[in-house]
Please model this.
Amino acid sequence: MNNLRVLRKLKDMTQDNMAKLFNINRTTYGKWEQGLHTPDTEMLVELANYFNVTIDYLLGVSNNTQTNVQVKHDYLELIKKYDALDPHGKELVNLIIDKETERVKEAEKIIPIQKKSNMYSIPYYGKAVSAGTGEYLFDDMIKSNIPVLDTELVRKADLAIGVNGDSMSPLYDDGDIVLVKKQESVNLGEMGVFIINNESYIKILGKDGLISFNPAYDDIIAKESDISCIGKVIGSVTNPDEDAKIKDEIDDIVPRN
Model:
């Protein structure tokens, strides 16, 4: 950590001064400057704050000294708690962080509209509905809430569900978010969320089963008594401008059945 030595001299501080300032042993501090040891995370943050540089600059992996790394007390406490965990605990924390990061990315992908003030919160089930070969639904799914633009259509929906697969493409693609109004049945030719044999699908209800919009996928042949309806797909969060086109496009393919 040669940069630490340079920064110290720029502050006109001796190693003794630094050791006293940070309440550590002078030998310990000297080993940091020699690169024999590296301070722990908490101390790196304190040093970076003191010298008003980045941690990367302290460690010698960047020449950028411009970024001020002032860290809030709450963040510092979180770092302390994380450092105190055993490997199993850190693995669990990392798992939760990864899942929450993915959830936030999905929400941001949905809505650059977050910059607008007129927002509405709706229950969201992630990629819970398969537009393809099926996906287990609801019992094991973790629900969260996402912000969406507050519209009349959104207010009619009971929940939002992520599409998993491309059998409804190009109406709805993998990763799109559809709005669902809960109801026990839909009319012939309407799009809904259905369950067959404990697997869920977003499909169009046909005379002999469920119809995919993408012609590359076969229809799912099933008796009406074997199909459970979760609700009607009434629109899209991801591509709201496309909703007006959907009914006409569905009408074109229902006669295939």
About this structure: Residues 65-72, 242-257 have pLDDT under 50 and may be disordered. Strands lie at 119-124, 129-130, 144-149, 159-164, 177-182, 191-196, 199-206, 209-211, 220-221, 228-236. The first strand starts at residue 119 and ends at 124. Residues 158 and 181 are 5 Å apart (CA to CA).
